[in-house]
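Entry type: protein chain
Record version: 2
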Amino acid sequence: MASYVAGSLVKVHSGVNLSHLKHGLVRCFATTNVTWTPRESKKTVVDKTGKNIVFVDAVRTPFLVAGTDYSKLMAHDLARHALLSLLRKTGIPKEIIDYIIYGTVIQEVKTSNIGREAALAAGFSEKTPAHTVTMACISSNQSITTGVGLIAAGAYDVVIAGGVEFMSDIPIRLSRKLRSLLLRLNKTKTIVQKLQLLSTLRPSYLVPELPSVAEFSSGETMGHSADRLAASFGVSRKEQDEYALRSHTLAQQAYDKGYLTDIVPMKVPGVSKTVSRDNGVRVSTPEQLQKLKPAFIKPHGTITAANASFLTDGASACLITTEAKAKELGLKPKAYVRDFIFVSQDPKDQLLLGPTYAVPKVLEKAGLQLSDIDVWEVHEAFAGQILANLKAMDSDFFAQKYMGRNTKVGVPDLNKFNSWGGSLSIGHPFAATGVRLTAHAANRLIREDGRFAVIAACAAGGQGVGMIVERHPDGQPH
């Protein structure tokens, strides 16, 4: 980022020790059937709602590279499958659900309130309200926290939150000049008027408007922003490729060990096999990664197709309610939703630094320290973005100059960081990722015998989220 290029800042950041990124150091622990009780050395987080709101469970479709097995479906098909699968997994009837909140970013105009359309397609009562939220890559985090707010306010007891993205079929618009002409043409009354209007048509009007993952305010694509961010914080191409390889390796290991229990297989019409796993996970070699050319800033950029998340199709859904209601329904929650915060900063120079700003704020709100956190689940938009955030968090200079802090935030223990892979490997259907992060955080707390997890992500517009969940004593990892 242009404002950070000062050599002093790069020197400060470049000293971060990345040796913890080696995937061999990340460990997972077997679960037992013994009832879990919090370790006495850990702190207690105050429940601010008075209702002990819980994350019961979550599901997601396999996340697929756009243009593959889901390509002939529509977004609400994926959302419908996630909703029905969540009901099957939790065993509760549709009638118990009070409200549905769904996130999406690239909207299909025919199903603009996709939460409502997916619910109706899934057979929910027409009396069950649903609405759709959009907050870029943190849309389903917003779904969850909006649900928490509705429950805390006493409006509802049982809420489904989720998100869906379908990049295989994105809206491509006619040019604005052509749209304007067609609208005026629709209002004409005579053949002469129509011909006169059509005579103003120019070839340039026929060029379509293609969507792009770019900031409206700056016009810059996120990939270019990530390249500038990596350069500003002195993140090398080698470091990024190593981190990307770590993500893919850990995702493959998690799948092989049967840890990704949030995935629900899907039978897709016209596809012979049942889609049962994420298809973007590819464990490569450093040599193969080095051969890839820069994807955005050419020829000297460091962001490539391998160390950036890819366009993905997928949907997710989770169930949240109060602890008392969960007990009444015979449910076994996985985690308490303890605290959250949304942050925003300059979308040009600090577009992808949401985690750096959100993490210390949500920890302070909850009265926790970095050392209290047993599990970290942080969205991986780009390897360079992750590493730049880690370097920013480890810099006194950055904390003092840009965050108004006396000392640095500190670096998370990378043995506890995204140890089942992340968006670089699993995939990133924009609005579905927040639920995936929360599900992995809750399941990892159980498997790794932890108590508190931090979930964090950056998002378009220079926004970000930080959430804290606490392991529930009844939680099981399946």
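Comment: The radius of gyration is 23 Å.
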